[in-house]
């Protein structure tokens, strides 16, 4: 697996996936089955391209089939934001690892985890690590992707880790709430929006997808921004109050 410095245009061929024209709405999330994968060596977004490797193609196919179009396109944008941030900062990063991390970072929201009571970040991290192991990727690299995904919603940690983790969190925050918006040029933002635009109503649709993936395990969202989504979607959800827990602990009450 090669490591590249993303300070120049990445010389990979990108790919586009042709999909069927019918879709099924599941839990407020458009589920679009994949018909076939078509290689498109001409596609490049603001000097960044998706790695043209079997690993990247397999990851994209799996995520698109499992998550549906909304989360898949979000994951693609996250990769581009992350790769552009690496280019701007002169960070050395393996594009394949960064791409797989971006693809799998929301995998824990997929329907297959409808009975899981782990944090969705851990479900996605476990799936990504298993995927990389099946492709004979070195264990150290698989562990880096695991930590990048597992910690991407925990603010303040990822920026202090290795580049894949820092860049994944930065790309996800940029795509969801515009964090670091002005650190990207207008040309970069326009290029990504032209190639993979945020759909109308993205915020509400994304929050619905999060809610559908977490409503059976709301306790796992405590301490992250996901708890805000749960409170927005469910009037009966209550955020955990750590001060209350301390003041009512056995140590404080002597019970």
From TrEMBL:
<dbReference type="InterPro" id="IPR006674">
    <property type="entry name" value="HD_domain"/>
</dbReference>
<protein>
    <submittedName>
        <fullName>Phosphohydrolase</fullName>
    </submittedName>
</protein>
<feature type="domain" description="HD">
    <location>
        <begin position="71"/>
        <end position="177"/>
    </location>
</feature>
<dbReference type="InterPro" id="IPR003607">
    <property type="entry name" value="HD/PDEase_dom"/>
</dbReference>
<dbReference type="Pfam" id="PF01966">
    <property type="entry name" value="HD"/>
</dbReference>
<keyword id="KW-0732">Signal</keyword>
<dbReference type="GO" id="GO:0016787">
    <property type="term" value="F:hydrolase activity"/>
</dbReference>
<keyword id="KW-0378">Hydrolase</keyword>
<feature type="signal peptide">
    <location>
        <begin position="1"/>
        <end position="25"/>
    </location>
</feature>
């Amino acid at each position: 697996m090669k490591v590249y410095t993303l300070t120049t245009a990445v010389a990979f061929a990108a790919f586009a996936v042709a999909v069927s024209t019918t879709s099924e709405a599941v839990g407020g999330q458009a589920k679009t089955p994949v018909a076939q994968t078509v290689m498109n060596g001409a596609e490049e977004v603001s000097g960044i391209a998706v790695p043209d490797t079997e690993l990247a193609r397999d990851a994209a196919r799996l995520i698109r089939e499992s998550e549906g179009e909304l989360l898949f396109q979000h994951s693609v944008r996250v990769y581009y934001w992350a790769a552009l941030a690496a280019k701007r900062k002169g960070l050395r990063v393996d594009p394949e690892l960064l791409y797989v991390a971006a693809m799998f970072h929301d995998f824990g929201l997929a329907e297959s985890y409808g009975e899981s009571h782990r944090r969705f970040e851990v479900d996605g991290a476990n799936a990504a690590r298993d995927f990389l192991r099946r492709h004979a990727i070195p264990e150290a690299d698989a562990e880096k992707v695991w930590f990048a995904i597992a910690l991407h919603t925990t603010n303040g940690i990822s920026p202090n880790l290795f580049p894949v983790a820092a860049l994944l969190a930065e790309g996800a925050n940029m795509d969801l709430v515009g964090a670091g918006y002005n650190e990207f040029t207008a040309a970069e933002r326009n290029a990504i929006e032209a190639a993979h635009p945020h759909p109308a109503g993205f915020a509400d649709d994304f929050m619905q997808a999060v809610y559908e993936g977490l409503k059976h395990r709301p306790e796992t969202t405590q301490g992250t921004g996901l708890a805000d989504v749960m409170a927005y979607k469910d009037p009966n959800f209550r955020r955990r109050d750590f001060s209350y827990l301390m003041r009512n602990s056995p140590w404080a009450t002597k019970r």
